[in-house]
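so my prof wants the structure for this chain in the tokens format not the other one, which i didnt know existed until like an hour ago. anyway here's the sequence
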Amino acid sequence: MDNMNKTLGIVIVAVLIVGGFLYWRGQKIEVTPIVQPNIPKEVSEVSISTADTIKTFTVVGKQFSFSLAEIKVKKWDTVRIVFQNQEGTHDWVIDEFSARTAKIEGGQSQTIEFVADKTGSFEYYCSVGQHKQLGMKGKLIVE
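here's what i got, hopefully its the right format
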């Protein structure tokens, strides 16, 4: 009987603690909203409206060539490359933008995106073996 009274006491204390916690959580807490002043946003010279532009290109890779030898975009475009490998093992790499697909097998594809944040002419290529030297390369022109 003494063990049963201890157990009953523990259960009652636990119920009171849980009930008190739930009651406390149910209390409304007043929050005073912070009012932000209406300050107009200024447009700076470096703000470019085309920053949200996504240019999508499908590049097909096959034994030692890409379907696109040249890709042209504007500075600040987001470039989306859908790389479809037709045969063999290939990837698509452009060092200056730290953009690269994984090395994938024929019949597979992978999509990558990067922002063309500098102007110029940049080489893209397949980094597998000697594929670049065998002609598997192209040019990204950012204007």
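also thought this was worth mentioning. Helices lie at 2-26.
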